[in-house]
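Quarterly update from the structural biology core.
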Amino acid sequence: MTTRRPRLSTLVLLPGWHDSGAEHWQSRWPVIHSDHARWMRVEQDDWQWPKRGDWMMQLDEALLADASLLDEPAVLVAHSLGCHLVAAWAAHSQHTARVKGAWLVAPPDLDNPDKLDSLPPQLHGWTRVPRQRLPFAAQVLASSDDPHSRVERAEHLAQDWGASFANLGPLGHVNAESGQGDWPDGWARLQGWLQT
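Predicted structure, tokenized:
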């Protein structure tokens, strides 16, 4: 008698501004956890000057290209600006049924009125942050010493998006530059969240 292997979840990686380099956990996880999920990475045409509408279209097209997501919706795994992509896409797309959840790590603070003058010009098109409740389960994870957002601001985003919230402690921007590398604690957290 043959035992059927359970179907693997599709995890869709959404990097932030400037993409996630080779040492970033978003690039490492598909390599070291290749047997634990089906992996998809949404590539953007312009990582340097991110146009929100273009990024949303790329996500829509990637999800529409995979017919299996009609029966087994994906989980979006976003970092930094990728978190805001999820919120913007969910507010406009007619294909949100292809997603069953979003795991949102280190969303930057883009609409703080006290910080708008110091926001890089490449991100000015993202300052109208959609704050409506996401149409699927979500969790926001934020670092207590992220240079791009105070943890309280990230927690407010989570509340607006209807997401659970986790304070990761002092992990910087939760990327390779802040020393996270393979980020095994993050992988364990994601697995725990997926099981709930």
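The longest helix spans residues 52-64.
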